[in-house]
Design a protein that fits this description.
- The protein has a single domain, classed as Aminopeptidase.
- Helices cover about 30% and strands about 25% of the residues.
- Strands 1-2-4-3 form a four-stranded mixed β-sheet, covered by helices on one side.
- Helix 1 links the parallel strand 1 and strand 2.
Amino acid sequence: MPFVDEHPAHLHIDLLPEAQGSGWGRALIDALVQDLGRRGIPGLQLTAGGTNTGAIAFYRRIGFTELRRTPGGVTFGRPIAAVR
């Protein structure tokens, strides 16, 4: 896939409905992005189900952009700044 070189890290995250909307998703992703930045990883990608409108909106709100759309889902990417 053409975006893998720029976004070599892949994230899969699932929160139970009672944990959604409480900030845990953002906190987990922020922690991962910080760690990847310290390791020099240039980008992160993930895929949300095409009908999961809540997740799609969430990923856009926290800085992910659409890389690819298929009937099964939307793949998002987010560049990561190097942290020293």
